[in-house]
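Bench log, entry 3. Co-assembly request; chain sequences pasted below exactly as received.
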Amino acid sequence: MTFVQNYSELRNLPAASLREVIRSGRYTGHTAGLAPGHLQANIVILPEAFAVDFMRFCQRNAKACPLVGVSDRASPMMHTLGGDIDIRTDVPSYRIYRDGAAQEEVSDIREFWRDDLVAFALGCSFTFERALMAEGIRLQHIERNITVPMYRTSVATEPAGPFRGGVVVSMRPIKRSDVERVTAISARYPFAHGGPLHVGAPEAIGIAALERPDWGEACAIAEDEVPVFWACGVTPQNAVLNARADICITHQPGCMLITDVDESQEVPVYRPANA
Amino acid sequence: MTFVQNYSELRNLPAASLREVIRSGRYTGHTAGLAPGHLQANIVILPEAFAVDFMRFCQRNAKACPLVGVSDRASPMMHTLGGDIDIRTDVPSYRIYRDGAAQEEVSDIREFWRDDLVAFALGCSFTFERALMAEGIRLQHIERNITVPMYRTSVATEPAGPFRGGVVVSMRPIKRSDVERVTAISARYPFAHGGPLHVGAPEAIGIAALERPDWGEACAIAEDEVPVFWACGVTPQNAVLNARADICITHQPGCMLITDVDESQEVPVYRPANA
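Structure output for the full assembly:
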C-alpha cells in the first residue's frame, strides 16, 4: 500500500504536502534542500521531569541549541511551528534512546508517545547554508552531496542539571577572502547556530585530525581555504545521553522536521494567514 | 549604618562594586546608564511548577521576553550571569505578587526565598539604546531624563499554559530618515527585544492616545519624526499576573539586575577570566 518515495520527487512539494508524505511513512530520508525557505528543526523529546533542565541547557548553550519550539503539556501537536504538525509522525525517522543508550530507529513514534513527553525543536544549519549559497558562497559538502563533517571538541558546554558534555561542531572549508562575509551572514541567524564558533586551527578546539570526522564525511581544505567551525545540533543529543532519561527520542541526523515557519522570521512562531 | 547612595555617585563604579552597594541596601533606584557595556536584565521569579510554561512563553514571545539567564534548582546564585550574583539581594528593588496581585515593594527578598523558586533574567532595552546612541541617534526620554513611555497594545502574545495577555511596547520618537538605520541597529540585539515591532501608526496596534502612556512619561513627536515601537520587558509581568502563581517576584521597572556579561556577547553566559 505505501511505497518509499524518492528524494528527487519531493523537491517541488510544498511543506504541508511533504509532511503528508512523511507522515504516511513513504519517505524516511534526509530533508536537506526540501521546502526552501521553511525553517527545519532538530528534535529532542524528553519526559517533562527533564524539561526545565533541558531548557536551562538550551538557554546557556544557545549557539549549539537554539530553541525554536516547545510542545504544550500532554499534546503531540506543535502548533507554534505549523498548521498540522504532529511530532509523533511528521519527522522522517527517529532514534529511540532508553536510559542513555540508543535502542532502535523508527519512522513513527505513536506507540512510544506518553502524555508526559515534551518535544523541543532546535534550529539547524540548513538556514544559514541557504543564506550563504544565495550570496554566492560554495559549500563543498552540498556540491559533493555528502553529509557535513562533524567533530567532538574540547570546548565544554555550560551544564544544566544532568545535561553536560562537549560542544560538537560542523566544519565547512571557506575561501580565506570570504571568511569575514561568511561570518557576518551566518551571524544574522541566531536561531541557526549564528556565527562560527572558531575559524582556522582545529587543534585549538581539540580536533586532532580533520580527515577523520566523528560524524559525516571529510572535506579537503584547498590552498586558499580555511576550516570554519560552527556549533552543531548534535551537541544536545550528546548532552541528552549523559542525562540518562528513561526515554528520549530524537530525529535521525539530517532527517529534520519541516515547519511552516519562514526561516527569515525574527521569532519562529507560525501564525495562520487568516489569524 | 547604611545610607542611601546617590545615582550620580554610582556612575563610575564597576559592576561588582555596584552590586555590593545594591546588595547592602544603600541604593534602591533605577540602573539606566550604570556599568556601561554590561548586560542588564529584567527579573521574574516563580515557583518551579510554573517554570516549564514560563520558558515556553519566553520562547514563543522572544522579542518581548528574551531569556538571558535561568537560576539552577534550589540556588539563588545566578552563576551564568556573574561571579557573585545572589538574586535575593542584587536587584535594587523588588515587587512581590501573591495570587496575581501586587503586595509589597522591598529591596531584599531573603525572607521570601524558597528552594522551589526559579529566577529568570530577560534582556532589556538599555542594550539597544546604548548602541543607538553610540551611532548618533538621539533618544528623547534619555535627554529629558524621564522613563520611556510604555503602552498596552491589541497585539496578543502567543500563550503558554497560564501565561497570556497583550504585548506591552515602549515608544521612542525617531527621525523619519533614521528609521531604517535604527531598525537595523536594534535588530542586531535579539537578546534586547531586537528590531521594532511596529513603526508609524499607534492605532494599528491598538494604542488610542500616544500622549497617555500606561507607564512612563509621554514623548512628543516632532514634524520630522515617527513613533517607533519595540516589544517591552513589561510584557511578561503582565502575563505573570494572569498566571496567578501563589508567589511571583519581579524587579521594579527600571531597577534592573546588573550582570557581568558583556552585552555584545552572542550568547549571554559569563565565564570567569581564568576559566
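Chain B touches chain A at residues 48, 51-53, 55-56, 59-63, 67-70, 72-73, 80, 118, 158, 160-161, 187, 190, 194-195, 266-267, 269 (CB under 8 Å). Residues 51-60 of chain B form the longest helix (10 residues).
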